[in-house]
Amino acid sequence: MKEFFNLHNIFFVIGGQGISYLEFCAVIFGLTSVFLASLARAVNYWIGFVYTALLFLMFLQKNLYTNMLLQPISLGINIYGLYRWTRPRKNEKNKKNQLQITFLTNKQRIMYLLFLVTVVLVWGFILTRLHLISDVFPPARSPYLDASVAGLMLTAQVLAAQKKWECWVFWVALNIGNVILYISAGLVFMPIVAAFFLAFNIIGVIHWKKEWEKQKQLC
After folding, report:
1. Which of 21, 90, 142, 150 is 20 to 30 Å from the Cα of 66, by its Cα?
2. Where are the domains of the chain?
């Protein structure tokens, strides 16, 4: 029991890769949060708060400071999302008195794609300069690839906070990329995790569309 509370200890080994209690707990909370989100349950945000905190600690432990710095941003978006989902305006409510699922207009889709490109370019540039600011940050190996992952994640989170169906398109794109990236890197555990995330993303695509169609029938 004492070892369990030391979250940095190795919980199990798979494919020669040691998985710590901290990583395993983060995966469980992450998968739970995404599964609940795929079912349009607002409680996913409360699980997500714990997930964000665990990711912060995990990235700190692994000296992945750029990923660590994203977590406070994610936390802010999640707080906004919980507020929007549970306190919608009168014309935005569904039968559960929560925020309705909606689709972006074509103009909004273009705007969010531009937002994604901007995040990738700005964050990628910051990553190329971060090690010059302080020796604490190691030189980025793939700054614009890392920035693309961050951009997809932040865009998906912002859209999810507004309960826009398109958020799942960004999540699916992100996790397809993650599965390919992890496999090409020779990892074993992380591709499995990413595949579970991807499966829940697909559930979200289907379930949110069905919920949106039910909303239309009630209007």
Report:
1. 21
2. 1-89
